[in-house]
Amino acid sequence: PAGKGTALRSVFEAADRLKVRVCAMVDSDLRSITADWVKYLLEPILENGYQFVSPVYVRHKYDGTITNNIVYNLTRALYGRRIRQPIGGDFAISRDVADFYAEQDVWTTDVARFGIDIWMTTTAVTQGFRICQSNLGAKIHDVKDPGEHLGPMFRQVLSALFSLMERNEGYWKGIKGSEAVETYGFEGSLEPEPVKVNLELMVELFKTGYQQFSPLWKGIFSEPSFGQITDAAGMDPKDFHLSTDAWVKILYELAGAYHLWTENRRKLLDMMTPLYFARDASFVKQTWNMSTLEAEELIEEQAVKFEEQKDYLIKIWDEKSAEKAKVKR
Q1: What's the CA gap between 74 and 167, in Å, rounded?
Q2: Rounded distance between C-alpha atoms, residue 55 and residue 89, angstroms
Q3: pTM score above 0.90
């Protein structure tokens, strides 16, 4: 099938056949890549014996909102490793990892088409490969306004994340807390390029979604979560807020709903896209006067809350598993 996954599979197979020591890959829309990036990605494997190198960047607070509000939090809480950019797109792997990836059974699935980056990261963790991060400095690429362009990406990334949760249920249920990952590479400080966002558009997209889907949301989310969503739908953009605690529960309940629904999962995620706009708008509002460094501290606080409420995820997940088993009988 077409997609980034198929292209990377070819790279993995070539790396194994050529018996390379290390293989690096970078995204195609970069405008900030330097020779140092190659060095920072390759050195941890060549000199320190690591097998998987994930990127860390200096990014503007509104660049990477799906990572900041969803992927980093879920990956950290589920798998217990503080990998800051699990879908960064710029990685390095050793030959044995390339060989392992090439042999897996995901290449005809949507994970290969839309979620190859998070699959690579998650698989590296669950298979026990030696993982580190490398700071590549500033990332300058073709940034997209969350309200205008990131709806499809939200659906694709969540589909991959939730599918991997089902594959790795036996692993993540036993993980408590998280541990830091060794970081190499760039050590200076940089100010990233600013990213423009349209706060009013995101709030409008959420409110339109509420008008369309609120009866369905009411049947999917718990009463407290739906109450928080309803309260947010009545707010003006200047006062807009959907709390972090509410967002944690909403995302965990959505994971449970995805687990229960064996059909029409794409429609489920389509219906949920306005909620991403709500959380993103709230994050923008909360961090409007913050520096990128201050916003990063807020992201870390959010990630801790995802860890602290993981028992709630397991409770919801087990309840949905029991419901699914009843339906099958």
Answers
A1: 15
A2: 8
A3: yes
Q: How far is CA 284 from the centre of its chain?
A: 18
Rounded to an integer, what distance in angstroms lies between the CA atom of residue 48 and that of residue 236?
52
Determine contact, residues 196/149, Cβ cutoff 8 Å. no
Dist CA 126 CA 122 (whole Å): 6
Question: C-alpha 273: how far from its chain's center?
Answer: 14
List the pLDDT tens digit at each of the 329 positions of the chain: 778 898 999 999 999 999 999 999 998 888 888 899 999 999 999 999 999 999 999 888 998 899 999 999 999 999 999 999 999 999 999 999 999 999 999 998 888 888 999 999 999 999 999 999 999 988 876 665 555 556 788 899 999 999 999 999 999 999 999 999 999 999 877 777 788 889 999 999 999 999 999 999 999 999 999 999 999 999 998 899 999 999 999 999 999 999 999 999 999 999 999 999 999 999 999 999 998 889 999 999 999 999 999 999 999 999 999 999 888 76
User: In sequence order, which residues have a C-beta less than 8 Å from that of residue 299 and are 6 or more positions away?
Assistant: 68, 72
Strand partners of residue 297: none
Residue type, 205: L
Q: Which residues of 122-144 are buried (b: 16+ CB within 10 A; e: fewer)?
A: bbbbbeebbbbbbbbbbbbbebe
Q: Which whole-number Å values give the CA distances from 92 to 17, 76, 137, in the listed order? A: 17, 20, 16
